[in-house]
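Risk register update: the risk that structure generation would not scale has been downgraded. Supporting records follow, first protein first.
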Amino acid sequence: MDFISTRNNAPAATLSQAIAAGLAPDGGLYVPRQLPAARELQAGESLADTAAALLQPFFAGDALEPALASICREAFDFPAPLQSLATANDHVLELFHGPTAAFKDFGARFLAASLTRLRAGEERPLTIVVATSGDTGAAVAAAFHKQPNLQVVVLYPDGRVSPRQAHQLGCLGGNIRALRVAGSFDDCQAMAKQALGDVELQAQVPLSSANSISLGRLLPQMSYYAHAALTHQAAHGGLLNFVIPTGNLGNAMAAVMARALGVPLGRIVLATNANRVLPDYFAGGDYTPQASVATLANAMDVGAPSNFERLRWLYNGDDAALRSAFVSRAVDDATIRDTIAARYRRFGEVFCPHTATAVQVLEQLRASGEAAAGEHWAVAATAHPAKFESVVEPLIGREVPVPPALAELLQRPAHAEPCLPEYAALRSVLRG
């Protein structure tokens, strides 16, 4: 299988080439020239087994194909359980049991395992440039820490991530370098994309990406949706519908692609915070990127979601068809707070702000009848609430226990370098 750019102005690439490059030369995102045909799938004995079977058509004929099973075992060595919520036929897919307590551990570890194999024997190290609105950078830093022949430069908006997220970004050292940018996530993302498209710089310093623009992160993220939906269907019959909190659209795009491959997923609803680019578009407005707004659900503070290019590609640029296929709703900070407090008070459930955003949207769908009583719905729980203790704990009136892996990271000293929100500043860092 080969891969093309969403902008159709770059040579086709093999899977290995697309993973190594991160971004296509024309600035577009890599997508398969043609999706594999939908097929009947079954859940494997483990998430890793399901992932290997699901991803095999994408790896067919590629240099990484013989290593696919071992890459999956390395990346998916922690669970993604589908748990029942207190309300009937509602579930939560817990994606926060990895080393940095966020869903991005899955894709980051898969990408690291892939690139480690692809870079074996190379003389010059590959530098991964990653912009983060909170969780991506920590997952990438942990996944690539001490990996041979690989370096990471993480850009994050100073003051716009939670204290524990910021600590995770700067606590590893070694081949990981954290830059706290005096700007927004959109500034960080624009700087990273400019670096990846800088031909002169790439000739001096080989670069790649680990943001959700990376094919090496997108493809493996299909796996936990497939495993949950297939396991649920075997136990209950019928389709599992999802509400997915989204910022850059990578996690939701993975679910959409999994459904296109034949995974028994029903409707996919996109939940956002006060950054309304997607809800406004799906309500009939133009797609108009905007400056991002800082919110409690900071990992979703994105005003120009990169993966919208992939979503449009999947629907052949047909805006009418795309709008008819999805619903997207925004939730403001006050409602996020109310949802966290009310769900704990009523049911003892504890959610991070991002997961609470999706829970609120599911509550709205149930109340309006858009989600019928007999339908099974799941919320993607994208991060552990302990990462947002300054928001969650005052609302529930108690401490949130910290997972052991996260506690270990928080015990390390942390350091991040200040950086201006200008490409020249990043270019200087990358050139060393």
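Supporting record for the second protein:
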Amino acid sequence: MQLGMIGLGKMGANMAQRLLEGGHKVIGFDLNADARAGFESKGGTAADSLRTLVEALPAPRVLWMMVPSGQITDDTLDALLPLLAEGDSVIDGGNSNYKDTLRRARTCAGKGLNYVDCGTSGGVWGLAEGYSMMIGGDEAVIGTLTPIFRTLAPGKDKGWGRVGPVGAGHFTKMVHNGIEYGLMQAYAEGFSILQHKKEFGLDLHQIGEIWRYGSVVRSWLLELTTDALGKNPTMEGIAPYVVDSGEGRWTVDAALELSVPAPVIALALMERFRSRDADSFSDKLLASMRNEFGGHAIKKE
């Protein structure tokens, strides 16, 4: 099967490479000339513009967008629309907000275009291990795209599937990432408790290795955590600052909209916010309150 890959960053380039190795013909485009050159060095064909990319593909065309969520996705789609024809398909494989996906799908439907949202998980390991894909869109359209998904997935019939109509893929991936927040926070807190029990001299890497086999808390995320502890047991040189890319916030928003309690995910998100406050006003105020009502000492800067 032939398709165009828009966005040749690390994940987009890896996905394109996996498709090439699976026998598909992939033409890639990226605004960055170095990214295009890197893709060509791996056997791919790169176009120097969206127009060139679209014109090189046979009709009906299949375009996979692997660009950051938000305005960049809108800008890319706006640039694509005048170049496409009825029956062409656009797959958004990024982490778009599902509400944006629904809006974009309506725009494409008005022009006779198919819009498919593919929530994609796998990160830097996807090239070797395959990608988990949660797909939303018309069932018949996704059926025609099956060879692509089977090649990218961990197995032909595992690790991917149509989860519902357009928007459902990104909604499912959003919740997937919200769960990820909670899991990561639990592992981080647990290992922190172990690390603070100094008199036992616990080897956190060893404990992680033990938990990886037979334990009810074993997971791929635990494997990655254990690998990190093996490389840097004390986390030396790493700032206690945790970013978020948006999906956790969207998951909490959805929980509020649906009146679904999600305290673990919400608190994990709050902890990420807390990690960025190097000069916490709230903590200073708490210390001041204790001094006011109980005369407790205040630690000076």
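Residues 168-196 form the longest helix (29 residues). On this basis the risk owner (M.S.) recommends closing the item.
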